[in-house]
Amino acid sequence: MKLDRAWIFDLDNTLHNATPHIFPHVNRAMTQYLQTHLGLDEAAAGELRRHYWKRYGATLLGLMRHHQTDPAHFLWHTHQFPELRRMLVREPRLRATLARLRGRKFVFSNAPVHYASAVLRALAIADLFDGVFTIESTRYRPKPDSYGFLRLCRANRLRPQRCIMVEDSLDNLRTAGRLGMKTVWVTRAPRAPGYVDVKIANLMQLPRRLAYLQ
Question: What is this structure's pTM?
Answer without folding.
Answer: 0.94
